[in-house]
Amino acid sequence: MEPIALLLAATLNAGTALAIAGLGLLINEKCGIVNLGAEGIMLIAAIAGFATVVHTDNDWVGFAAGMGAGALLALVFGWLVIWLNTNQYATGLALSMFGAGFSAFVGIRYVQEKLPAREQFAIPWLADIPLAGAALFKQHPMVYIAIALTFAMAWFLYRSRTGLVLRSIGESPESAHALGYRVRWIRLACVVAGGALCGLAGAYISVIYTPLWVEGMTAGKGWITLALTTFATWRPGRVLLGAYLFGGVTMLQFHLQGMGVQVASQLLTMLPYVATIVVLALISRNPTWIRVNMPASLGKPFYPGA
Amino acid sequence: MIDLNKRWWLRAIACAAVASVALVAGCGKEEPKPAAKAAEAAPAPKPDPLKIGFMYVGPVGDAGWTFAHDNARKALEAEFGDKVKTTIVESVPEGPDAERVIRDLADQGHKLIFATSFGYMEQMLKVAETKKEIRFEHATGYKSSENMRTYDSRTYEGAYMAGVIAGAMTKTNTLGVVASIPIPEVIRNINSFTLGAQSVNPKVKTKVVWVNKWFDPPKESEGAQSLLNQGADVLFQNTDSSAVLQTAEKAGKFAFGWDSDMSKFGPTAHLASAVINWAPYYKKATKDMLDNTWQTGGVWWGHKEGVIDLVAVSDKIPEATRKRIDEIKAGLKEGTFTVWKGPIKGQDGKKRLAKDQVADDKFMHDIKWYVQGVEGKVPAGG
Known about the structure:
The complex is a heterodimer of chains A (306) and B (382). Chain A has 306 residues and is mostly helical. Chain A has a single domain (2-111, 121-293), classed as Orthogonal Bundle (ABC transporter involved in vitamin B12 uptake, BtuC). Chain A has 13 helices and no strands. Chain A has helices at residues 2-30, 38-56, 59-83, 88-106, 132-136, 141-159, 161-171, 173-178, 183-209, 221-231, 236-259, 265-285, 287-293. In chain A, helix 6 (141-159) packs antiparallel against helix 11 (236-259). The longest helix of chain A is centred in the first third of the chain and has 29 residues, at 2-30. Chain B folds into two domains: 50-153, Rossmann fold (3-Layer(aba) Sandwich), CATH 3.40.50.2300; 155-276 and 307-365, Response regulator (Rossmann fold), CATH 3.40.50. Chain B contains twelve helices and 14 strands. In chain B, the strands form three sheets. In chain B, strands 2-1-3-4-5-11 form a six-stranded parallel sheet, sandwiched between helices. In chain B, helix 4 (96-107) packs parallel to helix 5 and helix 6 (155-169) runs parallel beside helix 7. The chains are: A mainly alpha (306), B alpha/beta (382). The A-B interface holds A 3, 6-7, 10, 14, 108, 111-112, 114, 117-118, 120, 205, 209-212, 214-215, 217-219, 250-251, 254-255, 257-262, 264-266 and B 59, 61-63, 91, 176, 207-212, 215-219, 221-223, 225-232, 241-243, 246, 249-250, 264-265, 268, 375-377, 379-380.
């Protein structure tokens, strides 16, 4: 039983960065902007967060630095795609490549740094429950923040007025514009919020998940996250579950190996993408499904004058 | 107005294009000049330093494999002073890019070139064929030619000594190895680690996870975590970063440093570091060049030649075990002790080495099976 509890604990931890970044991309895409730059944002935020913790020795300041770096990059991205109407896909790809190179460059002197050991966090009382305590209540606070964030995001998008405006911009920016909403500014706010969340995820990876800095250390997590929002058909709850599913696949594979069952890791690495393609194929076959789930203006530029 | 603007842009782009072409052409032309000048000034009293090129697979800051190579390069510079001049190219991916880098190094007048990863083998061989006047050195490979030779280290000796410590320190009798890519060298190290542990604790079992990368810290720590979750309490890795050690530190378990001294990455978890010191070989190769005695071939050096060592042994290790390590080191030095000496049984119980039979190098290079005590199967492709 105990190995299963620990496997569950590791899975929750592995899925957390994916979930946070996934929620960030969700808010982006709900208002109609695709940000393929997630990987680059996460990398730059990872080095920003790591470097900050090296100098200040405070994780939370590091997270804030990661969020700040992510928001700043997203601001530039938002300005390019919303005001200059550059192609969202090309701009996002460029941002990803820029992020990979830039983070490696500024991170050179941090490659050999190490962070001091941390106290393990545990929720009092609950952590002492046998099995479930170890699995569920002895995690880093960020694991719980990710879960709380999912509920907050669901409420915000589907229960609040601002969320409704945001979604309507994602569906039809022209109508929202006609009603007098400032489409471009609201979109920019979404993009910046999304960048900040991607940045938080990046900082979590370099400060807590693998507390060190190396070039390209997010290792494709940004791309998995992009797949994740589609896989989750743009629903916050499903983003969280999908994140645990994708995170769990790797942990399960190592677990099986340790038990002597050999599964090709290459096969499992591609599973999230296969799953995403399957979901895409399924929802694309059914027009009502697409209409219900996918923001209609996703990836399309908006010209307020036209 | 718009038209003018457009024209202005076009002109600007054209100007920029011309300028950059000129710049590139200029740079290209400039390079042979100093060489020609140097040739004219040949009868200078002091000979030019021997230019030595190093090509690394990772960043020099990886704290592991590449870091060890670079330390040896520094030792080389310290030893030979202004008689040599070294250049490094780091983070060169294995594959077609490597050929271009080797060719560049050759064209820039490096007379001795070290390529420090297995995956550079074919590329180096190809360049070596066209640059007969240059000497090539390839680490951990098995192909050589008249001007290209190989060098390698007996990393399994370090793995064995780490195993002896692991066997003494484990409480759960379960050891974990985070392995990289299923090639004989790595499988041999897993086996040697297990044999070392069994020599002091016959009940030991070894669990293995393969991450299929040399350097991927997040994956390495995920693999380490999953081994800890399954009851392993002493970890060992054949990957290049310090992630496994740091994961053990976080969990309050034990682990080792690999390739270079990693004690600072996990002061409490660190039991010892199995290190490679390439300096003796790099000095020998340079001396061969300076003395004009370079010959092709291949070497496989271990503790005896000062290439392999176990350092930074922790105070937590019992006195008897430390003594045993010293005995092994002395035995390796004098040639009275060998790691791969029978009886050794395979995982399936089949006898691989009879009693007192000593494995030769060919046997060692063909190990694609686990010894008894290692769990799981060797992945395909090994």
